[in-house]
Amino acid sequence: MKTLSKRKEPKEMVIKTEKINMPFKVKDCALITRMGGVESAVNLRELRDRISSCPIESIFHHFCETFIRPTFDDPEFRNDFAVWSARSLRDRVLAERLGVINPYKLESFEALRELVLDILDERLSELVYIPWVPRGEDFRFMRSVTVVFDTGLTLETVDDLITQLPNMSYSSIYYHFIEARRRTPDKVDDFTEWLSDFGSGTEELQHILKTVDFYYLTLPELKKTLIQALQSRKAEVTHGR
Amino acid sequence: MGGRSLAAYEKVVGPVAISQLTQLARDLAGARIVHVNSTRQGGGVAEILDWLVPLMCDLGLDASWEVIHGNQPFFNVTKSFHNGLQGMAVPLPQSKIDIYESTVAENAERLCPILTEADFVIIHDPQPAFLLNLCPERKGHWIWRGHIDVSHPNRKVWNYLRKIINGYDVSIFSMPDFAQRLNHPQFIIAPSIDPLSEKNREMSQQEIDRVLARFGISKDLPILTQISRFDRFKDPLGVIQAFKMLNSSVDAQLVLAGGTATDDPEGEAILEEVQEAASDDDRIFVLMLPPDSHSTINALQRASTIIIQKSLQEGFGLTVTEAMWKSKPVIGGNVGGIRLQVHNHHTGYLVDTPEGAVLRIRELLRHPDKMALMGENAHEFVKQNFLLTRHLREYLTLMLGLRRGLEHHLVAV
């Protein structure tokens, strides 16, 4: 296992950089998609019915795992339901209403399901006919199996986080910064949770991480945003601002 | 791939992608994995196994590749399975089933001892699928990997094969659209290309020019190329039709290059039809290439102005991925995996008719700047998602998932 040695810290830094008892083990993940075990939907009513009964993992997949799925495409909406509404149902109104949802602002993924169903019911009540898609453009429900593995990299100080972030894979950032919100008790990212163990002095960094509007970014954009945010904060502290 | 090691790919995909593979493979070290298909040369499956098996070994897995043998009547039957799975109306009398099952049974005598002991058996396509029924003492996980478009199969053929495939632990398809009603979990693994293979490696301009000169193709006129087997589903006659419609307005050349696989008895007949259709136009080049013509195909793709893949049915369409890796815009049939790869105005155009192909060829030839931008986009998408390291990672992920239980969404190793 590769462990980063503690480095000499500039005296003027007020960010806590000392070792603590709980080093951060950097993990990575690999995903493989599987069929969701639900019939595909060929019209808006079927989509509504299938969403009401599909496994919650499918809802999670279509909203949250689109970040790390292999694709030839960079669609304008982050979740698959909105993309399908725009491209196959050709209903831009519905696509925009679904596309603006940030699943991580909701209490739970069941609450997300309820919100999506509300939006679909509302749209169904507005339309005079049920929109269908052309043959072959059915909505296919998917889910995934995600394998989490140790990278061998351990962070011991806040400085390690800032310097090692550029070396982390996109899937590692996905796991620690996005997927973590499903796992952690406070629905925060793993970095923020770890920083809170340092006590006072890391609140500002935690605040920076909490305010990143990650859901509408691609993973390369998110990585760049995180690196810039943390490094600029470090520079400010180092220069006494 | 000539025993290329994983380290050789680091320059293309970066150290992180390689490190991910080694970390994932750690928990599978020593696992015995056997792939079975029906041909060592020709077609996309053989090309995939040619790199996949050595790389699995390089990661510490005990992987091997077995091929089932058969005579012409057997391959005629499996070709009709292939056609039937892609929707053609093909008869399936008991006599054909008998030929199929008895030939696989002959192979089973040789293969069952190997397959029974394996931790993971991966059976590619329908030809060897019946092996499962002949190896009742199997120890490991059996995976059926379908590479072809089975989205609208002939019911009779599918009903027969489904009973066999249902016996597997899981199946893998290239796209969600190909998945079927089966009583086990179905996974999606898109295929990929090998960026260092003879077919995809970088080439010098001199090398490319030499290949053009060998076939008498001019480098001063636009080159439109379709690389694919001579197979009805690839619609080579439709491409010739489109080219002839175009010829009055655009001075260009058409190259149709491909071969036939050893398991495809129809290839010769289609080739004759294509040669006949092209015989009255000396700017159409019909090139029947041997299965090992990888560098020739590479040069032809790199020399091309536009790549055409006007298939009527398609699995994933690896020739499209190869073209995109070489930064070429693609005009593709609006079917199968081509739809996944080609996005209108972004990486190329999808067309449904020869007329549609004519329109898009004209448009692209008039806008070289647009072609260049499409080529850049295409290359980047392939680099991020469709190189063999992603493909290998998904196989490892599936095997780890199978070992740890597929009921969980997150599996820690």
Kindly describe this structure.
The complex is a heterodimer of chains A (about 240) and B (about 425). With about 240 residues, chain A is α+β, with helices and mostly antiparallel strands. Chain A has two domains: about 100 residues, no CATH class; about 100 residues, no CATH class. Chain A is built from ten helices and three strands, in the order E-E-H-H-H-H-H-E-H-H-H-H-H. Chain A has a three-stranded mixed β-sheet. In chain A, helix 3 packs antiparallel against helix 4, helix 7 crosses helix 10 and helix 8 packs antiparallel against helix 9. The radius of gyration of chain A is 21 Å and the shape is elongated. Chain B is α/β, with parallel strands linked by helices and about 425 residues long. Chain B folds into two domains: about 200 residues, Rossmann fold; about 180 residues, Glycogen Phosphorylase B (Rossmann fold, 3-Layer(aba) Sandwich). Chain B has a six-stranded parallel β-sheet, with helices on both faces. In chain B, strands 9-8-7-10-11-12 form a six-stranded parallel β-sheet, sandwiched between helices. The longest helix of chain B is centred in the first third of the chain and has 24 residues. The relative contact order of chain B is 0.13. Classes of the chains: A alpha+beta (about 240), B alpha/beta (about 425).
